[in-house]
Amino acid sequence: MAVMRKSSVLSFCLYLISLLPFWALYALADVLYVVLYHVAKYRKQVVRENLRNAFPEKTDAERRAIERKFYRFLPDLIVESIKMRSISASEVEKRIVVYGMEDLERHFATGRGVVGVAAHYANWELGIHRLSLLIKHPVLIIYKPLKNQAVDSVYNAVRRRFGAVMVPMKQTLRKIVAHSQQPHISVFVADQTPRHGDSDYFIPFLNQDTLVYTGAEKIAKMTNFPVVFCHIDRLKRGYYSCTFTTLVENPSAVPGHGITDIHNAFTEDIIRRKPEWWLWSHRRWKRKPKA
């Protein structure tokens, strides 16, 4: 009951804020930037360490420029995510242009599912709404539940507004098997930090040994569903693109951890080209390989 009550209060508060027009939300974001970056200095040391380790070849001035752009974008991401609580379908469609849809349609035409891979890049949250409106087949979003149940409940309710099916990681196989006889897409946000016991596979990623999830690869090999990357890019404030790119047509033919290597290399290339839109405040490298 306590969790439900907290969820209801939080949901109502987010709804009221979400009713503000975009210009007002971005004015709020401008104030939030000053608070996060200059006053609270939110995770500034984490961001600087991540950028220093990821881009040792860049000068301090170049890394500071990326840092400032990231902190300018982070408040936008926050208010845009709140706006998802009440944004209309037509507004979502207007704000995210789509490329490469023919790739998905080609796979769906065979009657199979698709393993989608995405990253914490640009506004991946708004991308959930766009995907739900774009695809007439089931959209399964694989996610790692938050420790705060009230917040987790509220944000999942927002994400489900246009039909997305939110699937906790531990239920992934069961849900995908349940949809295996029809076209669908299951989306893994694959650049998260695995919990203890969830993975022991490290790869070189952004100049560091990085522990990565292999769940998308396991599902792809088990089902032989093609692997498609869903790349959300930021075009300008409040506007994005979503590009679908098939990375692996026949997963069963890829040896070892090849699929995981491929989609992480694709993610790294995106980040290196426009690093300011990635979630640098995330403690991505907490776990290190055993000596």
From TrEMBL:
- Leader sequence range is none
Q: Tell me which UniProt keywords the record has, alphabetically.
A: Acyltransferase, Cell inner membrane, Cell membrane, Membrane, Transferase
Q: Which GO terms describe its molecular function?
A: acyltransferase activity
Membrane-spanning parts: none
Compartments it resides in = Cell inner membrane
Protein's name according to its UniProt entry? Lysophospholipid acyltransferase family protein
Q: Which organism is it from?
A: Parapedobacter deserti
